[in-house]
């Protein structure tokens, strides 16, 4: 199997594109897909300040890495949810990533800054743990963007995520959610614009990108 572009031995095969790439050409492919996504939906301008929501997982760190490579003003935002060792490991990974690239990481901790964590709130409140987590993220992300003067919030949702969301909303016949699903959610009063620059890339592609770039991430 040879690289579609340079004919060197391929290391990544992407069947939906009927293509295979060597390492260097694959990294270029990912950057091009992100640039195409940004341009297609006018996600942001080169002068915009971008806040990347990072969880310590491969998708969000891959997104931050690509945006930094493309010379965007992209800072990271890590939200500590208080989920035991998982949150501790995620925080460590996000910090290390930022330090290695001399990038700025905004750090928020629910317990320290708001007096609660997701597991405790999920047990005591009337909402499920997932609902508490989602609401907390939405509030903190928007507040951090507003307080920090950022123009847009970028998340690492990939093509698989978007397909799964669409399927779930279709099966539950949640037409309102289907109508709102988009790579770009416009800014509203009190809410920053949100974008998903990885929406053209599959789970396999973001995982391969993270591996080839040597990005340490939490599984």
Structural notes for this entry:
By secondary structure, the protein is α/β, with parallel strands linked by helices. The protein has one domain: HUPs (Rossmann fold). It is 49% helix and 15% strand. The chain is built from nine helices and eight strands. It has a six-stranded mixed sheet, sandwiched between helices. Helix 1 crosses helix 9 and helix 2 crosses helix 9. The longest helix has 20 residues. The two termini are 29 Å apart. The model has no long low-confidence stretch (mean pLDDT 95).
What key attributes describe this structure?
Rossmann fold, alpha/beta, two-stranded antiparallel ribbon
**CATH fold-level assignment:** Rossmann fold
**β-strand amount:** 15-25%
Gross geometry: globular
Q: Give the neighbour order of strands across the main sheet.
A: 5-4-3-6-8-7
Furnish the topology, listing elements before pairings.
Elements (H helix, E strand, L loop, with lengths): L11 E3 L4 E3 L1 H18 L8 E6 L3 H12 L3 E8 L3 H17 L4 E5 H5 L3 H7 L4 H20 L3 E3 L4 H13 L3 H6 L3 E2 L7 E3 L7 H10 L7
Parallel strand pairs: 3-4, 3-6, 4-5, 6-8
Antiparallel strand pairs: 1-2, 7-8
Helix pairs in contact: 1-9, 2-9, 5-6
